[in-house]
Amino acid sequence: MTEIGDLDAECHAEVRGLILSGLAEHWGPVDPGLNPDLDDMLVTYASGRTVVARDDDGHVVGTGTVVPRSATVAEVLRMSVHADSRRGGIGSLVLTELIETVRRWNLETVVLETSSAWTEAISFYRDFGFRITHLEEGEFGSDTWFALDLSRRDGEPL
After folding, report:
1. What three-state secondary structure class fits 56?
2. How far apart are CA 3 and CA 94, in angstroms?
3. Distance from CA of residue 151 to its chain's centroid?
4. Domain locations along the chain
5. Which pLDDT belongs to residue 158?
6. Who's near 90: CB < 8 A, 6+ residues apart?
7. In which band, very low, low, confident or very high, does the pLDDT at 153 lie, cut at 50, 70 and 90?
8. H/E stretch holding 99
9. What digits encode the pLDDT tens for the residues 34-51?
10. How many of the other CB atoms lie within 10 Å of CB of 42?
11. In the CATH hierarchy, which fold is given to the domain comprising 3-149?
12. What is the pTM of this model?
C-alpha cells in the first residue's frame, strides 16, 4: 500500500533524483544547473507543500509540490512518478493530496503546466478534471497550462 507523507531532509535526495530522472526520460541528459529549485526544495517551496509517495519498502515512488500564487490560486509543480510505478494510481494519489491541501488553504483554483509534447501528462491532467487554459511558448518549446476550479459545488460539471 502506498503511503503519502511530506518531504523531509531524509528523503530529499531521493525525491530530487526521482524528479531529475523523470525529466531525463523526456529530454535526455539533464543539466542539474537548470533546476536549482531542486537543490533545497524545503527552502525553495517553504511557502507550499511537497508530498511524497512511498511504496511498501519505503522507497519514494511519487512526488508533487503545490505553492500558493495569489489569494485565490495555487500552482502544482514538480509532479513525478517513478517509471516502474506509473499507471498504478500513484500520480492520482499525489495530485489528490495536493488538491486537498489547496482546499484546506481555502483557495479557489489550481493551475499547472507541462510540456505540450508530454502527451501522457496532458491526458492525465485532463482526465483528472483540469481544463486547458492556454498554450505558451517557453524556453524549451510549447507549454500547456491547465486550471481546476475548486469553487464549484459538488455535482456541477467541470
Report:
1. coil
2. 10
3. 20
4. 3-149
5. 43
6. 2, 53, 61, 62, 81, 82
7. low
8. helix 90-104
9. 899 999 999 999 999 999
10. 12
11. Aminopeptidase (3.40.630)
12. 0.90
